[in-house]
Amino acid sequence: MRKKTSTGLILGLLSASLIITPCYAATTQSKISAEQGKQKENEKQLNDAQGRIKSLESKKNNLEEYLTELNNQLSELGENLQDIQSQSDARQEELAELETQLGEAQKKEEEQYSKMKLRIQYMYENSNSSYITLFLEAKDLSEFLSQAENMSQMTKYDRKMLEEYKKTTAEIKEKEESIKKEQEKLKKLHKESLEKQDEISSVMKSTRSQMEEYETQISAEKDTTKALLNKINVQSDKINALIKQEKDEEAAQSQKPSVQTPKPDNTAKPENKPAPEESKPETPQKPEDNNNNSQESEGQNTSGEKYLGKFKITAYCNGSCCSGHSSGLTASGTVPVQGRTVAMNGIPFGTKLKINGSVYTVEDRGVPYGHVDIYFESHEDAMEFGRMYADVYQVN
């Protein structure tokens, strides 16, 4: 009766041990899922923040282009103002010259008018005596007519010169008036250009203020993305640690000898049956290559290799097509070497891993724990390698 009770207790403990390990694995997997959910939410927030940064930078760039255009307009206005000022100065000089000419023309006109007026007055007052004197003093009729014609021509000349001086004076006045009107237009343009300058300067000031606001927002969003990246990196480390823990649990479970159902206790001698022969001690069997014997510690074999689990195995090169480092170096700062360098998170740099009989060194990052990326010098060889699953051992 006691032996039966002991046997039942042993069976119960063995069954419990078989149940507990999967429970641990399930618990670890739930933790991984929870952390991955948090990481996914943070990645979504990171993408949103990066999208806002992109939008703000686009708006800022548009304002920079607009500001450049405003600067060009301001420069053109400055050049126009200089041109207007030059034209105004030139017109002022023309006006000064015209005023001088006008003064001279008016003076000549007055002189001519005075001379003509004197001649006319003289001829009017002495017209009869003049003609009698010319007639008496003339040698003949022809000379008299000639002198009379000369007097008439002189009168015509006086009138003609007076008309010309008047015309010149009128032309000078007209030109002077035209230049004054042009000057008024130039003054108006000058005023409009100054007002436009003030308007553009005001717009430029508000544009710079808006750009500064965008820069402040961009800086705040960059701080947010930095904080989110730190969170994501911490969560990645935590997830890698949990994946490693899960893989270690799976490896430990796979290394334990399988539990067999105990045979019934036949030590009690049944009635009317002869006692069985004394049992001989069993000879220990040599374990197979893929299993560990009872002398091995959990996940550790006699060769000093620790079984990590069945990992996904892929390959990569150092080119941009495989998201390689621009410096050409690994994350640990070493030069990658084909046949030696592998990448995996969650395990220290320099750790030796044995995969399909070959030993590699962890020198790079980029893939989570449980996924080993083997370095190849050429992208073609990396693509040809493809993807596989293999048992991975840590070499001490």
Model description:
Among the domains are: 171 residues, Orthogonal Bundle (Helix Hairpins); 91 residues, RlpA-like domain (Barwin-like endoglucanases, Beta Barrel), CATH 2.40.40. It contains four helices and six strands. The protein has a six-stranded mixed β-barrel. Helix 1 runs antiparallel to helix 3 and helix 2 crosses helix 3. InterPro entries: 3D_YorM, PcsB_CC. Pfam families: CC_PcsB.
List keywords for this structure.
single chain, 396 residues, alpha/beta, Helix Hairpins, Barwin-like endoglucanases, six-stranded mixed beta barrel, 6 strands, 65% helix, rod-shaped, disordered N terminus
Give the oligomer, counting copies of the same chain as homo and different chains as hetero: single chain
* Gap from first CA to last CA: 50 Å
Question: pLDDT below 50 for ≥5 consecutive residues: which ranges?
Answer: 1-21, 257-298
Q: What is the N-to-C order of secondary-structure elements (H for helix, E for strand)?
A: HHHEEEEEHE
CATH topology of the domain at 52-222: Helix Hairpins
- Helix count equals 4
- Tell me the strand order in the biggest sheet: 1-5-2-4-3-6
Provide the CATH architecture of the domain at 52-222.
Orthogonal Bundle
The gyration radius over C-alpha positions equals 57 Å
* Helix-strand category: alpha/beta
- Biggest sheet architecture: 6 strands, mixed, barrel
CATH class of the domain at 52-222: Mainly Alpha
Based on Cα principal axes, name the global outline.
rod-shaped
Proportion of beta-strand residues: 5-15%
Number of strands: 6
Q: Considering DSSP H and I runs of 4 or more, what fraction of the residues is helical?
A: 55-70%
Averaging pLDDT over every residue, what do you get? 76
